[in-house]
Amino acid sequence: MSAESTVRPTEVVVDARPLLDAEAGVLALAVWPDDPSGADGDDGDDGSPWIGPGGAEVAEALGLDLFAALERDGGTGKAGEVVSVQVYAEGRGAASVDGEVDVTRVLLVGLGDGSAAAYRKAGAALARAARGADRLASAVTATADDAATRAFVEGAVLATYALAGFRSTPVPAAKRPLGTLVVAGGGAQADVVAAAVAVAGASWTARDLAQTPSNVKDPEWLAEQARRIGAEHRLDVRVRDEKALADEGFGGILAVGQGSDRPPRLIALRYDPPNAGPGTPHVVLVGKGITYDTGGLSLKPREGMVTMKTDMTGGAVVMGVLSAVRELGVDVRVTGLVAAAENMPGAAAQRPSDVIRQYDGTTVEVLNTDAEGRLVLADGIGYAVAELEPTVIVDVATLTGAATTALGRGHGALYATSDRLAAALRDAGEAAGERLWRLPLVDDYRFGLDSAIADVAHIDTEHLGGGSILAALFLQRFVGDVPWAHLDIAGPGRAESDKAELVKGGTGFGVRALLYWLEAGAPVA
């Protein structure tokens, strides 16, 4: 059975020619809720929607009354609203200079308040409305700034994600993503569109990894995907197998993986910018890569296991980020560590009450084998501190149900030892459409990790509650004095249904936020 997706993302190109010369069978125009300036003949105070640049020319060339179509369908111009207008036979030859390309539809796409978030929603809605089309030319971003253009393109590419390599028949043409999106007119910058495509492609990569079933996906499979990404994007890749992990003392990763006959791996991907020097900052990203999580001997109920193929989303995010840093011209060093294991209740599985030794020498009393993610992350963080001379460490993981209870599926939990690092990540997430909410590292809760027989317990021993906070406090002890942030993405790492640019299943949440942050130079303090 192949794990390769047979569905490809929408190609995006920039064409400076007018919309009607872009040789596309489907055209897209922006719709705004009202026109306070009174332009385009609207008096500006009746609240009626108006159509953005290119609308008059398209209406005349195709013989359409676009405002009547809006009124007929109750179009208001709110963000993500799409009104589809069929083109009659006499108007269809207007989509190219020579009149040989037929226009079959015009899509009127609402832009709401014109924010980047609204453009992202508009791009996603447009892509869904244009499924199966070969080529669509858009003037939706004609008056957009770079941030809005980028959001629009990212939304358009991500909204029709699918992993289809496991079906016995191909996805029907009408359900496939739009083939090519043409960003028409002279407004869009090619480098802005290219950056958006790179970021969306990185998220697509993370989703592919997260969505792959766990009968295919194990730690070695994940390592092979890292090697492929490294070869394609000129990254150094090193994989430690179970023997190397044992020789070097990665006790947490080994303990989590010892119940499975598919042994664990520690995957490292390294990017050095072309102009790197001794003073170039070094960012280390650490991702939880639990390729399947039964809970181990602390076994989950059946319904709790169904989604656990996505429990390696943190690792998928790290690999997705590394796949795009070179294309985006990131000018800091970046190392991605993926601590990969399968948590199974085999004969050799660790037991509740076992004591293990992490990479940095800390002994840990394991009281719940279903709290395994923090054990593999602790090894990755400890190794980074000891060996990689990081400027900053950010870990990302689908770590606790408590974070989902606190924040739902719309926000990731953010913990940080630096106010500026927290603010920079929060701002990057807001710009990228991946919202983060900072939660506190509560000193008064630290005693909740006290153990009677080891240096520390890995879960709450005092019934304090605040499970996401206790998990973050456990990880913090391995950071030393290196600036550090922890992203608990258990909520937004998986979507229950299609919405905006998200699709049901593993979302790759964190890829966009981290790439926006890295593009800004990874500000820390």
TrEMBL record:
Record Pfam families: Peptidase_M17, Peptidase_M17_N
Primary localization: cytoplasm
Annotated TM spans: none
Domain of life: Bacteria
Residues that coordinate or bind Mn(2+) 2: 288, 293, 311, 372
Subcellular location: Cytoplasm
Cofactor: Mn(2+)
GO MF term (any one): manganese ion binding
Enzyme Commission designation: 3.4.11.1, 3.4.11.10
Catalyzed reaction equations: Release of an N-terminal amino acid, Xaa-|-Yaa-, in which Xaa is preferably Leu, but may be other amino acids including Pro although not Arg or Lys, and Yaa may be Pro. Amino acid amides and methyl esters are also readily hydrolyzed, but rates on arylamides are exceedingly low; Release of an N-terminal amino acid, preferentially leucine, but not glutamic or aspartic acids
Residues annotated as the enzyme's active site: 300, 374
Protein known as: Probable cytosol aminopeptidase
Source organism (scientific name): Jiangella alba
